[in-house]
Design the sequence.
């Protein structure tokens, strides 16, 4: 399978080469390179098997997986957990979500639940940092429980050594794609506010992907500022921070909340300040954010099929649990949603619509279900 980085380098041309060199601001915006990258992610993704077929039902019979999202209140991670549960039912093994509100004490309780109830593996999904669970992970591994992470580390990061398998995402490349979008839409005159959460492990390379992209694709006329909003403070800090930034600088033209569930707190800030001219570009493809695109509140979302994510996560985990050769890069294509195609995801949007359905049949065949 061709890597996302290889595809980016070939499609974005000069923009990606500049990003790799990271030599400072480009003299002029690379509009054509940015357009090429956008075009490549504006066509429906196709399914290419990431590994060899195997009999998933047979090898997973009787096994149990506990999936623990960073927060059950986050629609993105919640829907991935629900999709994992649904796929587990289709294949005949148990997947249970450990519901929580992003509190480390709740994650500790989840680990204890897995140990006491003899689970085979735990999925720390979408932001649960293994480092805060050191003693519990050590105890779980003594009990023969495998520890996995998914949609957590960037592909350029090294996972915690206590983790048996990590399904990683090229967040930094998504940053390049977001930088390309805002560059094209502003003609190389971006003034953006980037909103992130520093405690989430991939935030640093993700934000660097955006800022390097703005420097090297957009050029010297582009500006950006950064707001850090810890996950438990999203509902207050994002709205107040964005509102203050807009009041302080009336030339801001883009808000880039790096995780799209943040958008629900950005939109009110635009309304309060009367700055509905400011656009929002973001990442994840959470259904309610695609609904916001349909309503005109968000301009673009780099989408990932949550159903595709769930299948890729489970495919990697099942291979490891069954003693098969597996892989570490989460196999999920990125697809751009804007006003031209957001309705294809349904009204209201669904976590697995709008991306085509090749992955459903593709994984069924891969798992020898049909």
Sequence:
């Amino acid at each position: 399978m061709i890597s996302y980085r290889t595809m980016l380098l070939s499609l974005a041309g000069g923009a990606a080469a500049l990003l790799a060199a990271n030599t400072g601001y480009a003299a002029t915006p690379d509009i054509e390179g940015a357009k090429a990258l956008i075009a490549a992610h504006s066509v429906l993704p196709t399914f290419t098997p990431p590994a060899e077929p195997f009999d998933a039902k047979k090898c997973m019979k009787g096994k149990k997986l506990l999936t623990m999202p960073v927060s059950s209140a986050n629609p993105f991670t919640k829907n991935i957990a629900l999709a994992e549960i649904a796929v587990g039912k289709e294949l005949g093994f148990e997947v249970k979500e450990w519901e929580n509100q992003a509190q480390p004490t709740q994650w500790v309780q989840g680990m204890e639940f897995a140990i006491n109830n003899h689970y085979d593996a735990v999925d720390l999904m979408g932001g649960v940092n293994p480092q805060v669970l050191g003693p519990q992970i050590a105890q779980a591994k003594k009990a023969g429980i495998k520890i996995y992470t998914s949609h957590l580390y960037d592909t350029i990061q090294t996972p915690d050594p206590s983790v048996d398998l990590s399904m990683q995402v090229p967040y930094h490349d998504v940053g390049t794609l977001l930088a390309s979008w805002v560059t094209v839409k502003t003609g190389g005159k971006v003034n953006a506010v980037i909103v992130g959460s520093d405690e989430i492990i991939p935030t640093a390379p993700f934000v660097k992907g955006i800022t390097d992209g703005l420097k090297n694709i957009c050029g010297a006329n582009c500006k950006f500022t950064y707001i850090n909003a810890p996950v438990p403070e999203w509902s207050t800090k994002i709205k107040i921070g964005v509102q203050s930034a807009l009041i302080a600088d009336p030339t801001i033209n883009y808000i880039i909340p790096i995780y799209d569930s943040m958008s629900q707190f950005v939109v009110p800030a635009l309304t309060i300040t009367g700055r509905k001219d400011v656009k929002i570009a973001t990442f994840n493809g959470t259904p309610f954010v695609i609904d916001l695109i349909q309503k005109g509140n968000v301009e673009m979302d780099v989408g990932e099929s949550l159903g595709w994510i769930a299948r890729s996560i489970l495919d990697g985990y099942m291979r490891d649990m069954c003693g098969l050769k597996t892989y570490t890069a989460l196999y999920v294509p990125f697809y751009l949603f804007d006003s031209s195609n957001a309705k294809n995801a349904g009204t209201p949007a669904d976590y697995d619509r709008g991306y085509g359905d090749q992955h459903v049949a593709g994984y069924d065949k891969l798992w020898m279900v049909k």
